């Protein structure tokens, strides 16, 4: 197996491995080490089916089973969530796709997120497999939160170590006037957690600048003005291009990312292309994050993703 880095701080392509084969323990260890070192790893031309995808993922941990998935997800494989249903999301709440994106992403950089980051126990990793993708467009971008933390000055790192933030599903949503089914859904299914602004990675011990505009609206225990300006600084830091890598998908591509050490930016340039984009996602169960002082995240609202998570 070859490990070919794709950018200075993040991302590596792993070649000369066929994920349909049973992997020996040494190969699994090498893949895990590459994931921890490069934060997101890519495989190409891997034509796994759902069972193969699940079998590969199981070599790296327990799998998350979501209580609700989109209608394109395979009924007989509850660990697999199929995201062919992007267009379905807005429709479910009475909006076309453009309005849906506009209302959910109207604040700057809103697309950057960790998967299920507002849960008490966000997934440790996501393994996303492309089945069908547009001939151009639709790239995904990741950023390295350890590098972003290290890129702060020492005094600001020390200050950030002391901060906590509220991560909440639906922050920044621009509600419709009158009845709004999505707003109602958010109110009825609130998911929110107080997470440390600086999270310590449970495997590498690295400190991670754990903020993202998709879920974070306020820094806790500071004034609103302080919170706004601190978030502006931290969000600018984590989205700086030098900490990122961008991936061009093809059918059979797989991206396997550490969902604790990265944010990613889903593409928003394909809705007009009228070409299917069918992706299958399997997530590894995570743990309750710990901050720089050892304090653990606290649930504000919502269930855990993986009830056994410690
Ligand atoms: Fe995502």
CATH architecture: 4-Layer Sandwich
Uncertain runs are none
Structural class: alpha+beta
Q: Report the sheet with the most strands, covering strand number, pairing sense and barrel closure.
A: 7 strands, mixed
From the spread of the alpha carbons, the general shape counts as globular
CATH topology label: Double-stranded beta-helix
SS field, number of helical segments: 8
The fraction of residues in strands falls at: 15-25%
CATH superfamily assignment? Clavaminate synthase-like
Quaternary structure of the protein: single chain
What is the element string, with H for helices and E for strands? EEHEHEHHEEEHHEHEEEEHEEEEE
Count of extended strands: 17
CATH class: Alpha Beta
Report the radius of gyration as a whole number of Å.
Answer: 19 Å
Could you report the average pLDDT, rounded to the nearest whole number? 93
Ligand roster: fe (ii) ion
Classify the helix fraction into a percent range: 10-25%
What's the N-to-C terminus distance?
33 Å
